[in-house]
Amino acid sequence: MTQNPFFLIPIGQDDYDLGDYQDLQTVIxxxxxxxxxxxxxxxxxxxxxxxTASVIDSLWANPEFCQAGETPLSCEVRVxxxxxxxxxxxxxxxxxxxxxxxxxxxxxxxxETIRDGICRS
Length: 121
Prior knowledge:
Blueprint: H1 9-12, H2 25-30, E1 32-33, E2 36-37, H3 72-80, H4 93-96, H5 99-115
Antiparallel strand pairs: 1-2
């Protein structure tokens, strides 16, 4: 669902109106700096059909951007060096994973992001 031209991409392309929420401009500016725009780029960890299992499986890493042995998630972390992560899964997991598998893979993603120093102060 995040690989959608209407999800955050208009913000990265300066096609938005904050209306009464002009204070949010500082947030947009913070995540659109140093040539790394977090809003309009194609993330290696957010691709059509990905579920919680595929994002941590090196089989699904794009060799055009990712190094040998990297998972889509580890590739994205290396390239973007994020300080925070928005983790959104579930839609594609419903069809392929049972609850226990979803729990295992989602926890693995969270553990990896914490291990990589994302979301730490």
